[in-house]
């Protein structure tokens, strides 16, 4: 009875918070689905009877979403500060829905590229807004767990995309326009996000910035913040409202602590993408076809990859929450180096029977993705969501996330050309080297003590 009573009290305490967390995390789900669905849909839309995409056009179609995400992530902070996190995520859901429908109805390569770019605006905005929003509405004791739910939902969205690709490709693979159905399925979660966005909690931090202190205090209590902690935080920031709302870029760049945090945020965002993770997420089916798995076999192999990544993200995020974040980042990067190097060796050797090669390639891809999606990706989002002071959080988070997408765009654009020019094995060796460079940066440039000191001093001014 005592345990049941405690559980009921916990549910009442975090009821609004839990509801809001799962709704906001749908932004991460859409981020995952829309970046993952191209993996299977690209092979079908590339056919002569459809959009007739060459390797260079495949790169442009895939990277057009990423280019849009760069802009969406960069602009998101401005609108999130002006109109609020809640209103912004509602408009993100609208863009997701309309752009998805237009992509599914595209008649040629130009239309697809244009609408994928517009869809990218929503993807980029969601990738920046969701982790920041989750961090702002969550009490300290559940903050890491709630921010990590967004990372889990990203991988879940990719897994669902892989499953839908495989099922639709298997059942109606002879019908070339099946890729339109694959793409259109993203409308379901985007509509759910829009409907439920009306009932989620506003960010207490944003209310404080706008001077609504009483409303922010009451909302913080409903979200489960301890009264003493909420009162101390709000009263402490009450003195800084004018400074926080009027902080200009000139003031930011004249503050060495803020400049340092911004640069480290950009470095961490860069580290996340130069791993090569999205080349596998976007081109996995084509990659597996190149090593001889066939169209249907490649689609089903992606389900295994996605499922493993999803399970790894659940266990990885729990582990990250209880350990030093920067140490976990270094461990994850070492794992990336090992698995990518082994993947390159296996493909380069080319002396094993085809069945053995296929099995080993799939195993290394699974291990690489599990390691990255379980450790590297969630820990980078978690660090970025926590490292910036409230006065500049939305703007700095936008810049860091835009860096993520700019790097993603560059890699996804040139990847098909690199594969054709260098071969698959050599490209994976290249990504093993880029992960080594990331590990070097995490060991030499990122200093946790300096980050914490810069955060505290910037927040207190």
Automatic annotation (TrEMBL):
It is found in: Cell membrane. PROSITE patterns: MFS, SUGAR_TRANSPORT_2. GO terms for molecular function: carbohydrate:proton symporter activity. Keywords: Membrane, Transmembrane, Transmembrane helix, Transport. It comes from the Bacteria. The keyword Nucleotide-binding does not apply. Pfam families: Sugar_tr (PF00083). The chain crosses the membrane at residues 21-46, 58-77, 89-111, 117-135, 151-172, 178-202, 258-277, 297-316, 328-349, 361-384, 396-419, 425-446. Residues 20-450 form the Major facilitator superfamily (MFS) profile domain. GO terms for cellular component: plasma membrane. It is a multi-pass membrane protein. Belongs to the major facilitator superfamily. Sugar transporter (TC 2.A.1.1) family. NCBIfam families: SP (TIGR00879). This is Major facilitator superfamily permease. It comes from Companilactobacillus crustorum JCM 15951. The lineage of its organism: Bacteria, Bacillati, Bacillota, Bacilli, Lactobacillales.
């Amino acid at each position: 009875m005592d345990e049941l009573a405690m559980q009921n009290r916990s549910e009442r305490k975090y009821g609004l918070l839990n509801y809001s967390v799962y709704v906001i995390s749908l932004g991460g789900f859409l981020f995952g689905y829309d970046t993952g669905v191209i993996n299977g849909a690209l092979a079908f839309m590339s056919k002569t009877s459809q959009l007739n995409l060459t390797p260079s056009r495949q790169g442009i179609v895939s990277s057009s979403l990423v280019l849009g995400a760069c802009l969406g992530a960069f602009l998101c902070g401005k609108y999130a500060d002006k109109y609020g996190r809640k209103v912004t995520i509602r408009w993100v859901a609208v863009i997701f829905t309309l752009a998805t429908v237009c992509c599914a109805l595209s008649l040629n390569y130009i239309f697809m590229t244009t609408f994928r770019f517009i869809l990218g605006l929503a993807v980029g905005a969601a990738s920046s807004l969701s982790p920041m929003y989750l961090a702002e509405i969550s009490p300290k004791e559940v903050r890491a767990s709630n921010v990590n739910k967004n990372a889990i939902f990203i991988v879940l969205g990719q897994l669902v995309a892989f499953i839908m690709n495989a099922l639709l490709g298997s059942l109606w693979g002879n019908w070339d326009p099946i890729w339109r159905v694959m793409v259109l399925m993203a409308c379901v979660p985007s509509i759910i996000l829009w409907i439920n966005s009306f009932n989620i909690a506003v960010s207490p931090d944003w209310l404080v910035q706008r001077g609504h202190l009483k409303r922010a205090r009451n909302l913080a209590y409903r979200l489960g913040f301890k009264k003493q902690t909420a009162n101390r935080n709000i009263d402490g920031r009450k003195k800084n409202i004018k400074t926080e709302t009027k902080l200009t870029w000139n003031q930011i760049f004249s503050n060495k602590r803020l400049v340092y945090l911004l640069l480290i945020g950009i470095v961490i965002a860069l580290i996340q993408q130069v791993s090569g993770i999205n080349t596998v997420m976007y081109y996995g089916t084509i990659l597996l076809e190149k090593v001889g798995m066939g169209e249907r076999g490649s689609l089903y192999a992606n389900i295994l990859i996605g499922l493993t990544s999803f399970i790894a993200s659940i266990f990885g995020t729990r582990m990250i929450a209880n350990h030093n974040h920067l140490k976990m980042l270094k461990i994850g990067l070492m794992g990336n180096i090992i698995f990518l190097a082994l993947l390159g060796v296996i493909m380069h050797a080319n002396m094993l029977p085809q069945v053995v090669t296929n099995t080993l390639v799939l195993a290394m891809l699974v291990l690489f993705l599990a390691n990255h999606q379980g450790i590297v990706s969630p820990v980078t989002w978690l660090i970025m969501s926590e490292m910036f002071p409230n006065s500049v959080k939305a703007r700095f988070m936008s810049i860091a996330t835009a860096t993520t997408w700019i790097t993603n765009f560059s890699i996804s654009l040139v990847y098909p050309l690199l594969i054709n020019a260098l071969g698959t094995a050599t490209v994976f060796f290249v990504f093993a080297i880029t992960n080594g460079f990331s590990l070097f940066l995490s060991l030499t440039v990122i200093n946790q003590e300096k980050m914490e000191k810069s955060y505290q001093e910037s927040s207190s001014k």
